Structures are given as structure tokens and as C-alpha cells.
């Protein structure tokens, strides 16, 4: 593997992994748009990731040739064995396992180690080189149990029955995970959604992730009328609370579900009244745990606090290399802004 302006390139196999621009052949780890870009010639991914790409990018832009590779299956291209192993990040997310001439490299994509009832769990794969993300690669980031954060949310709903609870989430992954966690915690009432979240929730349902009773937030009643959905839970893209759309809700408690809610200044700057530390990435301890489990003598580090993680790895006798890949962001942890125009649903 080598780093190019088009991203990580497997030279003997002649393909890229999560390239930031269109290429002839790409292997895609998951459907977030900082990893799944449009207009590749050929795309190899899990069936779920391909379905998500078609939903988000359009059938004609999700790869002119689309090849699904399910976990447990393997193919060979130019002598390079390719497998996809669950990464635990979002539905369909996968690590890319490449075997060539007796050596193995694993590209993690984004991953988390916590249980997620909306997708398959991460599976560590021993390898010679492990390519890891580093979104939360600082010791301050220690994620609490997501179930604990959901319990805090439900307690707030109990304490403020005259207010709606509006939670900012990312449309792919965080939204559906939070819904499933709420269902497991016993919330069997309808969960109300901003229109920008409806399509991917419907796709999750089609792909077998059952989410229960989901309803679009009703249109605003007469101007000046009191808000709706007091005592209810509403999910929306971040930014919806700053648009006229929010007038539909009864004195909303503004919440946000993100690993970044560990940083109080960030929560305060965003006007978040109830920060919920629910992350779809590995925290500091889990990054180091994963490095130990994959037993790789060399670890390459992508977006995030690359230098901090490389330093910690060196103290453990592991060679670290910061890749400084372009085109990687916090998209899946910084929820999408609400559409400028109200969705009408």
C-alpha cells in the first residue's frame, strides 16, 4: 500500500481504499461521504454499503460497476486476496483485509468497539500492518456506556413532560443506533423525525434493522400557536434547532448525541442543554486495545490526533506512521446541518 493524492492505493491489486476523488476501482469501507465518494468506475463494498451509497448518491453515481462482497466471502484481484470484516461503525461498515505474498494489511475505515444493536460488531484481525482512524485519540476521550446516556435522556423526558426533547444526530448510523437503544431501554412510544432522517431510517428497515414506530414531525400549526410533541423524543440533523422548523416543537430541550459532547466548550458553543456522549468511534482506551489485539508491529494512523496515537504506540514498541490523508473529516461525528428549507414532514 502507498499513499497517493487519490488516497490509499494497493499497487499490486490496482485499486484504492476509500479514495477522496473518483478513481477507476475503489473498495469502500462504509457509506459516510468522507469515505464513499461518487463516480468511481467500479466499487467493491458490502451489500449494505452499496445500498446506502445508491440512496445517498443516486444509482448512477454509486459506481458504474458495483460488486457486493459479504462478510465471510473473499475474492482475489491480481494475486491480492480481499475480504471485508465488520467494523462496527454503521450498518454495512467493514474493515478491508488484504493478503499478498504472505503479508496482511488491514484498513479499518472508521470503527467502534461498543455494542451497537443497529450493526454488526467490530472483529479484530491479526495482521502485519493495521491502518487505524484516530478521531478520539487523546486520553481525555473515554466514552461512557451509551445505555447510561440514554437513561439520562429518558430521565430528562420524565422531569420535563411539558417540553419536547430535540436530539441532534447524524443521519447515517447515529440516528438509527439511538433509536434502537431507546427501544431497548423500553421507549415504545413513537419517535418523531425531521424529514431529513426519514429516508435512511426506511432503508435501515428494508435492510433488516427494525426501528419501531417512527413518524415525521407534523407541520407547524397556526403561527403563534403553542408548540407540539410535549413529552416526546424528536430526532433531527444538527442545526435544525436554529431554523424556523423548530417552532413546531413545545419549548424543546436541545440535545446532541456525539463523542464530541465530552468537550463542554463545544456543547456550550452549540447551545446544547443536554449533551449525550454517544460516539460511533473508538475512544482512547479502545484504540490502544485494538492495537494490542491485532498484534501488528506497524500501525498507520489516519485522520484525527495522529501524532498523539503514534507517540503512545511507540511507547508500546509499535511503529506508528501518520498518513495525513486528505479528505477525511468529522462528518459522522458532526451531524449534518438541517436543510435550509423546511422539509415539510
UniProtKB/TrEMBL annotation:
PANTHER family in alphabetical order: BLL1145 PROTEIN, CLEAVAGE AND POLYADENYLATION SPECIFICITY FACTOR FAMILY MEMBER
The keyword Metal-binding is assigned to this record: no
Pfam families: Lactamase_B
Top-level taxon: Bacteria
Lineage, uppermost ranks: Bacteria, Pseudomonadati, Pseudomonadota, Alphaproteobacteria, Acetobacterales
Location of the Metallo-beta-lactamase domain: 20-155
Name listed for the protein in its UniProt record: Ligase-associated DNA damage response exonuclease
InterPro entries: MBL (IPR050698), Metallo-B-lactamas (IPR001279), RibonucZ/Hydroxyglut_hydro (IPR036866), Xnuc_lig_assoc (IPR026360)
Keywords: Exonuclease, Hydrolase, Ligase, Nuclease
Species of provenance: Falsiroseomonas bella
The UniProt record lists the keyword Ligase: yes
GO molecular function: exonuclease activity; ligase activity; RNA endonuclease activity
Amino acid at each position: 500500500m502507498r499513499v497517493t493524492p487519490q488516497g490509499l492505493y494497493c499497487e499490486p491489486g490496482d485499486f484504492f481504499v476509500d479514495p477522496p476523488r473518483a478513481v477507476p476501482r475503489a473498495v469502500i469501507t462504509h457509506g459516510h461521504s468522507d469515505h464513499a465518494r461518487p463516480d468511481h468506475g467500479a466499487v467493491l463494498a458490502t451489500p449494505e454499503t452499496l445500498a446506502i451509497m445508491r440512496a445517498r448518491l443516486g444509482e448512477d453515481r454509486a459506481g458504474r460497476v458495483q460488486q457486493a462482497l459479504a462478510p465471510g466471502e473473499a475474492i482475489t484481484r491480481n494475486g491480492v486476496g480481499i475480504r471485508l470484516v465488520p467494523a462496527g461503525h454503521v450498518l454495512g461498515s467493514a474493515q478491508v483485509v488484504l493478503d499478498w505474498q504472505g503479508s496482511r494489511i488491514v484498513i479499518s475505515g472508521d470503527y467502534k468497539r461498543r455494542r451497537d444493536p443497529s450493526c454488526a460488531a467490530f472483529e479484530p484481525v491479526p495482521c502485519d500492518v493495521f491502518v487505524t482512524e484516530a478521531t478520539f485519540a487523546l486520553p481525555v476521550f473515554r466514552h461512557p456506556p451509551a445505555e447510561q446516556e440514554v437513561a439520562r435522556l429518558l430521565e430528562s423526558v420524565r422531569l420535563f413532560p411539558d417540553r419536547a426533547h430535540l436530539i441532534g444526530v447524524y443521519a447515517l448510523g447515529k440516528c438509527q443506533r439511538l433509536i434502537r437503544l431507546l427501544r431497548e431501554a423500553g421507549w415504545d412510544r413513537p419517535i418523531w423525525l425531521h424529514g431529513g432522517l426519514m429516508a435512511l431510517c426506511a432503508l435501515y428497515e428494508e435492510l433488516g434493522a427494525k426501528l419501531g414506530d417512527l413518524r415525521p414531525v407534523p407541520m407547524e400549526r397556526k403561527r403563534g400557536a403553542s408548540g407540539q410533541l410535549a413529552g416526546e423524543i424528536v430526532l433531527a440533523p444538527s442545526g435544525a434547532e436554529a431554523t424556523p422548523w423548530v417552532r413546531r416543537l413545545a419549548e424543546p430541550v436541545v440535545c446532541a448525541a456525539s463523542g464530541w459532547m465530552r468537550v463542554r466548550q463545544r456543547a456550550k458553543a452549540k447551545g446544547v442543554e443536554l449533551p449525550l456522549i454517544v460516539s460511533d468511534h473508538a475512544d482512547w482506551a479502545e484504540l490502544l486495545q485494538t492495537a494490542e489485539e491485532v498484534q501488528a508491529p506497524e500501525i498507520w494512523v489516519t485522520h484525527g490526533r495522529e501524532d498523539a496515537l503514534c507517540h503512545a504506540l511507540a511507547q508500546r514498541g509499535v511503529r506508528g506512521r501518520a498518513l495525513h490523508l486528505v479528505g477525511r473529516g468529522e462528518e459522522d461525528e458532526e451531524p449534518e446541518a438541517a436543510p435550509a428549507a423546511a422539509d415539510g414532514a
